[in-house]
Sequence to fold (325 residues):
Amino acid sequence: MLFLIPFVAFSQANNWEVFNESTTGDWIDPIRSSDAIDIDSKGSLWVGTYNGVFTYSGDEWTLIKDKANSFNPSINAIEIDAQDTKWIGTLWGLVEYANGKVVNKYDTKNSDLPSNTITSIAVDAQGKKWIGTSKGLVTWDGNKWNTFDLNTDLKSPHVQSIALDGNGDAWIGTKDGLILIDSKGEWQLYSNTNSELPDNDIRCVYVDENNTKWIGTFNRGMARLTENGRWQVMNPRNSGIPENHILCINKDANGMLYVGTLSKGLAMYDGQKWAKYTTKNSKLKTDTISFIKIDADGNKWVGMFDKGIALLKSDLVVKKGEGEE
Fold:
């Protein structure tokens, strides 16, 4: 069934720049995680790849090297706290990196991490680190580890995304549902059997300025959960979202939502109309979008899986129109 979907078209006035081995000489790929990028207080980009951590301050890309305390180059997550300390999640544990060196390395032998495969990291307003792994969730406040027993209600405690809202609540996307952990430490599981969540394989969770939760699933599109508990499901049958396989979500200061997909490129949604960038109408080198990060100037940094990073620099110019999606 085809639906008439309002859409917007965007100008291509040289607002793309691509960073990969062919343009920079650096192998800043593959990028496999939606959580593998952050920006420090100076505006420098920190990107985790399966070849290590790269930084970019506007001039050149630099591979982080620490000969005395080298850490595994396979990076799944990077989160920078208020002190500019970098918390780096690898396939072999958690790295604390500050002032140009590795300060600490945590693994299952010297901490309460349930697994050395770190999948997602978030830091709350109190500086507490929320750490997702392939075998569950822990928090670390610098003195004490707290482990959440997710095995009680989940077939798979594999954490894939962590988002913190304005109420101090944590939203945990797993392979087996969405978990809400409130500020008191009590938690609730949302699944496709007890809620309107369309799919239990949650690849990304994003909380916007209205405390609305945008939940990307791997098999059945995207769900929107408002502060008052109302659900809305978006898929190719009822909206202009290009496919059901959602890998990453972000939103800019103008209210434009950006959605990265597995095979249909980068989709944009302004609340009414949809549009998309692909390898056919932009400088994207692949239609698999790993992450979307928006900096203080509104620039969009787009992870292109195994093809590097694309930078969408300028504001988009909207052209009115309507067509079939």
